[in-house]
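README: folding subset

This subset contains proteins for which both the sequence and a predicted structure token string are available. Records are stored as plain text. Below is the entry for Exosporium protein C (142 residues), shown exactly as it appears on disk.
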Amino acid sequence: MVRILDKKTVQPLSRFNLSRSFIIPRSPKKVRLASITLRIPSINAQPNRVELVATVGVKGITGIAQILFRVFRDGREIFNTQQGIESAGSEQNYAVTFQAIDRNLSSGNHVYTVTAENQTANTRADVVGPISFSGLAVQTRS
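--- output ---
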């Protein structure tokens, strides 16, 4: 049996929009894309898991940028993935979607944040939207 403990979603950008775009900085700098706070109750919440899903619209500007997306819980990295973003030819706009799973959280509030950083020198990629980030906390057994 699965019991929902909490669910949060945020959508800082709801669509592709060049006028609201911003540069993904070169590592080690990063940009915070979205944050949510999930609450794990203190009673009958173990074992549990949090399912996180993020979508980020990205446009390649110069070169082939390697964008590192990271997910943090309470300031500690728990997940990362990397996506190559081309800037010429047919591949310039991307909707990058990824999922992360966090297990057996202690009770209380937990802040999840998704960030992006460009790992490749002399390239540029911009966030152009949409951006969405959601989390679902569930108890995995009764």
